[in-house]
Design brief:
- The complex is a heterodimer of chains A (256) and B (347).
- Chain A is α/β, with parallel strands linked by helices.
- In chain A, strand 3, helix 2 and strand 4 form a beta-alpha-beta unit.
- In chain A, 25% of the residues lie in helices and 23% in strands.
- Chain A has an eight-stranded parallel sheet, covered by helices on one side. In chain A, strands 8-11-10-9 form a four-stranded antiparallel sheet, with no helix packed on it.
- Chain B is globular, with a radius of gyration of 21 Å.
- Classes of the chains: A alpha/beta (256), B alpha/beta (347).
- At the A-B interface, helix 2, helix 3, helix 5, helix 6 and strand 8 of A face helix 2, helix 4, helix 5, helix 6 and helix 7 of B.
- Strand 9 of chain A pairs antiparallel with strand 8 of chain B, so a sheet runs across the interface.
Amino acid sequence: MPEKALFITKLEDVKYLDNNWERLYFGNEFCQHLLPPPEDIIKVIDFTKKNNLDLSLVTPVLNSAGVLKARDILRLFAEYYPGGEVVINDWGMLGECRKYSLEPIVGRLLTKQKRDPRIKKIMFRLAPMAQKRFKESGINPGYAAFLKENNIKHIELDCLLQGMDETFCRANGLCLSLYLPYGYISTTRRCIFNNNGFGHCSKECQKHSFRLRHPSFDNALLLKGNTLFFDNKIGSKDVLMIDGLKRIVYQPTLPI
Amino acid sequence: MKIVAPVSALKEVFPVIDAGGDEIYCGLFSPQWLADYGDIDSSNRRHCRHASIKDYGELAAVVRAAHSRNAKVNLVFNEFYSADQYRMILHQLEEIGRLKIDNLVISDLGLLHIMRKNKNLTGADLTVSLLGSTFSSSALSFYKSFGIKRVVLPREISLSEIRELRDSMPDIELEAVALNCKCKYIEGFCTFQHGFGFIKYAQCAKVLKKMVPSFVSAALSSFLAQRYEKHLSRRNFGCCLGYDIIADPQEASGAADYWIGRIKSYFDGFLEGCGACSLQSLEDCGVQFVKIAGRENRLRDKLEDVRFMKRMIESMRLPGDEFQRAAKELYRKFYKRGCSQQYCYYK
């Protein structure tokens, strides 16, 4: 059975933990302003050690100032979890992980799936090759060779509404994580809650979330902070049948 | 500062270069790709067929034409490819190896990896596409390890961030988008599919083919493609739809209404970006190339854009305030509308 990981972005969300979980994911994929401060990292490390949980640190796309901020928490993490896992969503973080001998796993922003929820509705119109592409990630022979050369064995994926085909990843010995129930669609630096990216971030996004409805989508899109998500509770049972599935990453709330 | 201008057909090469384009960039949408994937999933991030070069023969002619005017050719492979698509793209690269393309613009990590190992495949220099999302010197350092010569900066980067990239790696050429297509989301991470409008277009084209003689339907299709494909496609962009927006139940109603208004405004319509009045700042930050987006635009729009940008570059010797005034006046003169902060790439 795949390992069960709970993904939280805030310290108070440890309330969602119960005996069902084997690993905790902590951090943020989409916004460097929401990277946890070092003191929260220490508290989470303490909590996971006391509760016999494994811990993966989650990092977002970063500018250079954000990389400096991330280095502080990577250093801390490496002290308490030598060789620990870091989910990277920015290739600039690969070198940073190496500096602290941490194990990078490729986050879902870098695995290049086609996530538009409307794809499911038009699949029947498409040529077989196009249908196949829309179920796959962007892991190809060159990408797999790069991962092998860099000793990266684990990639992370969203559970696509149109179905999934990760035959190539399995054939190349990659381990897969699957995020449920929220898949991301798109993310921006022009954050509405931060004056389109030009304001001082007061984390206003933490107070709000919205549903966006349009006739072209079967279900509402979910907007929180700088990122749009879709909800896929539907595939929950089928996904456990995917070969090579090492881990389910469950998000109790929108991961912003 | 040099202009990198879009081209989507052989007939555009001379006019675009003569209007002021120093380099051209284009994508290839091969017949094989079209047969396998249709319009819905492009090989180069443009779903309109008329936005791309049609085959190797036309591409060879484009390169010859550009080189005869001493202009470099950038060929874009700025998508992320599945295993099957990657193999097709590699085959394309083998086919075009003898064409002397100057620069390959790549976003796919697998393609970058293989091109680092097989530089002699095409002899071209490598550029990381703006889909590489290079926001930090750490990311630039990562891409530099693939032997790249240039990086196209992402749209959502600030002037101070550009300066920091330049300071960290002055030997990498920097190219910045300066006109058109101001995406609301980080393009390198956006998974909205922009080809949906073309499904409707393809359906209409099929009906048309049955109703009228083939020579009429071909000409009419081409005319309609030029005029309406862009409109059809943008109407279906996930980032530009007229959504009904509902706050989560716990939201206080006053605050909800305010943010719903802001969100509606955010998604309302497509933004034609412009960075012209920031050219002096971009040059100060180390940007050597300015890109005009819009391979799908009509030729006359491309020529207007190139001429505007050329005039702007010629005006860069003006003092700062005068340059800003000149930029606004030129923009109004060329585009028959005033510019607006919402269009600004770098302000």
